[in-house]
Amino acid sequence: MKAKELRELTSEELKQKLFSLREELFNLRKAIATAKLEKPHRIRQIRKDIARILTVFQEREKENV
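Below the sequence we write its predicted structure tokens.
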């Protein structure tokens, strides 16, 4: 997901997206432990998406100050 798309979402939608991405990341890490991971590149994508969402939150926080 691109940062431009994330900026268009509301804070609630971002929180939901962040929660679902963290949950998916947890499940992928579990799959690594059991050696059942089919798409290892997905972990990197999810981590980057989480970082983008957190960056958007910080940008919004700075705007409000």
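The two ends are 27 Å apart (CA to CA).
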